[in-house]
């Protein structure tokens, strides 16, 4: 029995030493540092993973924004070309004097022979000279059919811009036409 108690004593001392070393290493500053280092490494991995996902999403959004910018740039280029064409056409139209007639030409038409003074204003009437039954005026007038003389070109430009997907408000702003007139032209073209 003595042997057994000595054996148990050695086992107890061995267990005591083992648990002492185990507790001392588990709660030592080195153990805390090692545990913290492992947690920091794990957090760094998580942050890198989340950052990679965020960068991929950001790159995707940047690509979409670049596509939208290219589309807008293409539409603005087309719009500038159309505005330049419309401005050139308007300038040529005004320079050629098209759309203007003298009162002599208007009064020479059969439908205007009976009432030559209808087109004149009451403020300052030019003096007519008689040539048979046609009164000749030297003042120039512009035919007015409800729309301006340049409206066929402008109408085509408005319709083309609306077919390209531009908003009626934007078209009205850029062409100088009222919004209602632009919307009417767009709706009539459909």
Would you mind describing this structure in some detail?
With about 190 residues, this protein is mostly helical. Among the domains are: about 25-95; about 150-190. It contains 6 helices and 4 strands, in the order H-H-E-H-E-E-E-H-H-H. The strands form 2 sheets. The protein has a two-stranded antiparallel ribbon with strand order 1-4. The protein has a two-stranded antiparallel sheet with strand order 2-3. A hairpin with a 2-residue loop joins strand 2 (about 130) and strand 3. Helix 4 (about 150-165) crosses helix 6. The radius of gyration is 46 Å and the shape is rod-shaped. The model is unreliable at about 115-125 and about 135-150 (pLDDT under 50). Keywords: Membrane, Transmembrane, Transmembrane helix.
Alpha plus pi helix count: 6
**Widest sheet, order of strands:** 1-4
Q: C-alpha Rg, in Å?
A: 46 Å
Please tell me the overall pLDDT: 78
Secondary-structure content class: mainly alpha
Main location: membrane
Membrane topology: Single-pass membrane protein
GO cellular component, one term: membrane
Keywords: Membrane, Transmembrane, Transmembrane helix
Present the secondary structure layout:
Layout: H1 2-26, H2 29-96, E1 100-102, H3 103-108, E2 129-131, E3 134-136, E4 140-142, H4 151-163, H5 168-175, H6 179-189
Antiparallel strand pairs: 1-4, 2-3
Subcellular location: Membrane
Biased composition (Basic and acidic residues): 103-114
Keywords: Membrane, Transmembrane, Transmembrane helix
